[in-house]
Design brief:
Layout (H helix, E strand, L loop, with lengths): L6 E5 L3 H13 L5 E5 L2 H10 L4 E5 L8 H10 L4 E6 L4 H9 L4 E4 L5 H39 L11 E2 L5 E2 L1 H8 L10 H11 L1
Length: 202
């Protein structure tokens, strides 16, 4: 995402509020690529069709109202940065919106273009960091699962040293470990085997 030109989706059905928000977006100097929608359905459809960096979302729309609007968006697009725009000064609703996944909330009529620009930048950056954190956590969990598999008892043939998989198939130890971890093998001889091979050659 190019912070010089963020891709913004504005979902707002009130014409006056939409005009004010669009004017402020122009005044921010962000040179944003802005798309619009008047309903939740239009917003969800637009988000599914094209890449968007941030959603400016009015909670009260013709086809959805209150926090259910936010739940619908976050449920389908959990990785998207969302800023809620509300006409009420109820602080508890704003806090609830943050708990549900919004990155910030703005009260209509109480912010200008500078605050809007700052909110957009911070919301996008914060969501990117959260997404990266979740990705790292997911990778760590996968790695721990692989380690757990390797630390358990492995049925091994006493003669050929093959390992029996959960499916009942006997495979080479190297093949098993490579398939359950990121370990790679380099082949060589230990001192004892080297001496043994040397004697055999002589």
């Amino acid at each position: 995402m190019n912070m010089g030109k963020p891709r913004i989706f504005l979902v707002e059905d009130e014409q006056v509020s939409k005009k004010i928000t669009m004017r402020m977006l122009r005044e921010t100097g962000l040179e944003a690529d802005v798309r619009e929608g008047k309903t939740l359905a239009a917003g969800l459809s637009g988000l599914a069709e094209s890449g968007v960096d941030i959603l400016l979302l009015d909670l009260n729309l013709p086809d959805s109202g209150g926090l259910d609007t936010l739940k619908a968006v976050c449920g389908k697009f959990p990785a998207l940065a969302v800023v809620v725009m509300t006409g009420t000064e109820d602080g508890s609703m704003g806090l609830d919106a943050l708990k549900l996944g919004a990155q910030d909330y703005l009260v209509k009529g109480q912010f200008g273009h500078r605050e809007l620009a700052r909110t957009i930048r911070y919301a996008i950056e914060r969501k990117q960091l959260l997404n990266e954190k979740e990705e790292l956590i997911s990778r760590l969990q996968d790695a721990l699962k692989r380690v757990k598999k390797l630390t358990g008892l492995l049925p091994t043939c006493a003669d050929c040293k093959k390992i029996k998989t959960a499916e009942g198939k006997w495979v080479q130890m190297e093949s098993y470990i490579s398939g359950h971890s990121e370990a790679q093998f380099s082949h060589g001889f230990c001192d004892a085997c080297y001496k043994k091979r040397l004697k055999e050659i002589k």
